[in-house]
Amino acid sequence: MDNIAPTMADQPIFELREAESWRDPFSMYRALRDHDPLHHVEQGDYWVLSRFRDVFDAAIDFETFSSAEGLTHQYGEREALGVENAPIVMLDPPEHTELRKLVSSGFTPRRVSDIEGDVRAFVRERIERIRGLAECDVVTELIGPLPSYVVAHYLGVPQQDRELFDRWTDAIVAANAAGDLASAGAAVVELYEYFNGLIDLRRTEPGDDMVSALVAARIGEDQTDEVPLIKILGFAFTMITGGNDTTTGLLGGALDLLTRYPDQRRLLIEDPSRIPAAVEEYLRYLSPVQGLARTVTRDVELHGQVIPRGKKVMLLYGSANHDEREFGSSAGRCDVTRRFRHMLSFSYGPHHCIGAAAARLQARVTLEELLKRCPSFVADGERGRYATGHFVRRHETLPFRASGLET
User: Fold this and answer.
1) CA atoms within 13 A on the CB side of 337
2) pTM for this entry
3) Which of 55, 201, 231, 352 is buried most deeply by CB count within 10 Å?
4) What CA dihedral angle connects 111, 112, 115 and 117, to 10 degrees?
5) Which of 100-114, 219-233, 252-266, 344-358 has the lowest mean pLDDT?
């Protein structure tokens, strides 16, 4: 699309995407960036930011762009949950800071690297299973179960309970993506009951996991108060809803791109040391979380318009990460040799994704093992199906053959 001003009939619009409409949100994003970088959506009465610098500035300015009223375009999220039930992603500093400090030590790159051996063993076992099949759904066989395995590890779910945990997680992730958690009511109740029991167990038998850390932690001015049960449950729920489909989206998109661009695949096969940088480019280009909302705490003037206090603003990470103003004229192409300073796939500021290092580890290990063990794999993105949900862009199914592409 060129930079000629559009006619009234061609004014850029923003439409929430889901399922198959996720195949190409990028032409819509570019029209918004070029012609309407602060866009008002009348139906729902919220605003949309699409340029990198605007989204970046909003993400770090938590005092103006608050998370306390929820992360979707819909109003009334906080009231629906109740103040005490708000998860960590719906807290602003200083309350957010205190709770985040309690768990962040478990997600440092060093601590994350401690589980690399287990992750690699899991990935290898799944790949060997796939290699024995003529064709499979790689979401079901590998890139869906992997993040669930990692989340269960961090939450301290014992091995004998993993099958139950995976079943609950699948139901909750699907319902959350569709914006209808009520449809997973039984799974939510069972999961909460399970973690109530696990929390009680960790009071007497602590482990090296996040639940144990939160049970043992003390908060408040004199550091004597226990972390409320509802906050521990909320953190577990946030890990499940935020740590599963996003990693699946990253890996599914990466496998599709490696199939479509064999020259770039060959670069990674010939020099696996390029894979960590390639993961960064896949994160930028794919942006599994395409956007989340904030609520402005004051009137904000931007691009000649005013966002009134109390209004929701969608931060379009997926658009920002394709902004030519930040990444140059080739921003709309995937290039595993690209180098850049910042990207917004994990957001920025206080709400920078706490699981970023874990997501990078899973992506790197999976690509290393796939390119080593079945370098001629084919992921058929055309036949793949995109999942429902307005915020995470991911494959729900992705047909996969362990061999078939000439390398």
Assistant:
1) 8
2) 0.91
3) 55
4) -110
5) 100-114
